[in-house]
């Protein structure tokens, strides 16, 4: 199964293969799910990645069944595999339109059991739950905000993992306060570090956002790495109600920063990318 999670290592600066996935997710899907080799090489050069690194990264993505080689009208290019298209489609809402949970949403609890003879399924299930933002109550017992039930059920069914799990909806009635409990279910320390790194790296871009937005190529060169860095985070952050988050939670400031940069840079960056892809620039 295609696993884009392996393409998104946590806490590191964006790698060429991550940037390539972002380019295909943003622009190739809207252009018939295809990018010519020449367009890919040029766009990657504009964000500081040279041809040899592009070729090496594409080879890795092909081995992982994320990209496939396809010629169209005699022109060499690449397209996303059906499995990769599905994973990216699942991520669109989480990255761009994620809903923060409310207190009255309750909780979704998942219990799983996978036979020892199917270890690959166990790995796939854990990877899927992590990417969905689940926390861990105990081995084999995972938890997420209650409003995610339909999303979780759909993902597990599409990936052939539903038969290994049981889902329960309810409220937390533990002895300790829920706010204390959630700090043991999720690693807020690591998330705090990742959000701080994002804010430190892209605060300057917000200060210069008007100048960047006025130049389509500069907007593109700033936007694609920024989005690549950001798209890891919604898969690690469960989107808990604000009242359950640690005091002075920096994830909210990071969300505001991303939202402002996305609103300012997405359109001019897209115009530049489409011009290159269509041979108009």
From TrEMBL:
Sequence ranges assigned to domain Transcriptional repressor PaaX-like central Cas2-like in this UniProt record: 102-182
Every Transcriptional repressor PaaX-like N-terminal domain range: 17-81
Q: Which GO terms describe its biological process?
A: DNA-templated transcription
- Show where the Transcriptional repressor PaaX-like C-terminal domain sits: 186-273
Q: Which domain of life is it from?
A: Bacteria
A Pfam family it matches: PaaX
What is the recorded name of this protein? PaaX family transcriptional regulator
């Amino acid at each position: 199964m295609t696993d884009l999670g392996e393409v998104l290592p946590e806490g590191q600066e964006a790698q060429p293969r991550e940037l390539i996935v972002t380019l295909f997710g943003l622009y190739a899907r809207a252009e018939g799910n295809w990018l010519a080799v020449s367009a890919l090489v040029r766009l990657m050069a504009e964000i500081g990645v040279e041809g040899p690194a592009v070729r090496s990264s594409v080879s890795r993505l092909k081995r992982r069944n994320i990209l496939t080689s396809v010629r169209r009208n005699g022109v060499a290019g690449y397209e996303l595999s059906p499995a990769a298209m599905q994973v990216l489609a699942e991520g669109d809402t989480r990255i761009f339109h994620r809903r923060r949970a409310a207190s009255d949403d309750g909780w979704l609890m998942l219990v799983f059991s996978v036979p020892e003879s199917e270890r690959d399924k166990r790995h796939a299930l854990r990877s899927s739950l992590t990417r969905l933002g689940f926390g861990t109550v105990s081995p084999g017992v995972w938890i997420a905000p209650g409003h995610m039930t339909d999303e979780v059920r759909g993902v597990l069914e599409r990936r052939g993992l539903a038969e290994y799990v049981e889902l329960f909806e309810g409220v937390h009635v533990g002895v300790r306060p829920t706010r204390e409990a959630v700090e043991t279910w999720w690693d807020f320390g690591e998330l705090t570090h990742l959000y701080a790194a994002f804010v430190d790296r892209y605060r300057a871009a917000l200060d210069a956002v008007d100048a960047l937005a006025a130049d389509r190529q500069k907007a593109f060169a700033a936007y694609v790495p920024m989005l690549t860095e950001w798209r890891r985070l919604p898969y690690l952050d469960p989107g808990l109600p604000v009242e359950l988050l640690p005091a002075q939670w920096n994830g909210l400031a990071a969300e505001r920063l991303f939202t402002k940069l996305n609103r300012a840079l997405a359109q001019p960056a897209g115009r530049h990318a489409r011009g290159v892809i269509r041979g108009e620039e």
